[in-house]
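User: I'm preparing a small set of examples for a lab meeting where we compare how different chains pack in three dimensions. I only have the primary sequence for this one, and I'd like the structure in token form so I can line it up with the others. Please keep the answer compact; I'll paste it straight into my notes.
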Amino acid sequence: MKQVMITLILLSFGLATNCFAAMSATRTGAGFLVWLFVGFIALFVVSQLIPGIILTAGLIKGLFAKKESPAMHHDHRA
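Assistant: Understood. Below is the structure token output for the 78-residue chain.
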């Protein structure tokens, strides 16, 4: 009985791969609405990249900026 179950499982995997191969051969590609959705998502990604680049540039500029000495911040008038 165990041999029959193993044979049926292996046979079902073999038939399923043939079925998927036949389905992928007849696909016509994505339609207009799919590409419109992908473009809409890409618009969100690009709109989030611009502030991220600005913040990263500010961080790098702040890391490499010349440090001011504490004496420059005090007012020496009496």
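A couple of notes for your slides: Helices lie at 2-25, 32-64. Residues 32-64 form the longest helix (33 residues).

User: Perfect, thanks.
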